[in-house]
Amino acid sequence: TGSLWPGIIIHFVNNLVALLAIRLVGSEAGAETPELSESLMSAGLFLLLSGLVDTIDGQVARRGAMVTRFGAFYDSTLDRIGDGATFIGIGTYLLLAPGIAYREAAVVRCMVATLASLVVSYERARAEGLGLDCKVGIAQRAERIVGLGLLSLLFGAGPGGVFLEAGVAILTLLALITIVQRAVHVHGAANAADLA
Fold it and tell me: What would you report as the CA-atom Rg of the chain, rounded to the nearest whole angstrom?
């Protein structure tokens, strides 16, 4: 086995990058400045970097034979915190930024997006706890990170926040579809396992 330090350092960088993205969105939300859209774009870049570093973190752990049960648990826990914090940061932006169209509906969609993203992850974890594979669905975590990150990086919130609102709405719908896909998949897999 190799040293644990490369994995620890990469995991620390991953968490730091994610926190920077969340801080940029949350701290700038109430300010009426031209930099607000640039901060949202920067947050999108940090979100994409966070996803990239998270991928590298996992690969380093596997290749360096540093995979542990606690490490997997810890990584999954931080991923859920990151998922929730991302949508909370976007919701804060949509709640406090000036000139947001459909403000109340947008904030409610962020709440639903938070719940849906957590349920998508929970379904996989629960299925795997039952000994079943559950890596199915059209909107897994990577798709959500890339979708929100690219949208924010390329377009910011858009006029009145409508681009960001639309992105959250689409990702929420896709996450809800993924919830159904995973439930159907696990239902079939569980029935097959029970009959075997």
Answer: 18
Among residues 57, 75, 79, 194, the one annotated as catalytic is 79
Decide if 54 is catalytic. Answer: no
Residues 90 and 25: beta-carbon distance below 8 Å: yes
- Look at the pTM and tell me if it is higher than 0.70: yes
Torsions phi, psi for 141 (to 5 deg)? -60, -45
The tens digit of pLDDT for each residue in 104-123 reads: 999 999 999 999 999 999 99
Q: What is the mean pLDDT of residues 149-169?
A: 90
Question: 10-41 as b/e, with b when 16 or more CB fall inside 10 Å?
Answer: bbebbbebbebbbebbbebbeeeeeebbebbb
Q: Tell me if residue 64 falls in helix, strand or coil.
A: coil
Query: What are φ and ψ of residue 155, in 5° steps?
Result: -125, -10
Of 17, 9, 22, 20, the C-alpha closest to 52 is 17
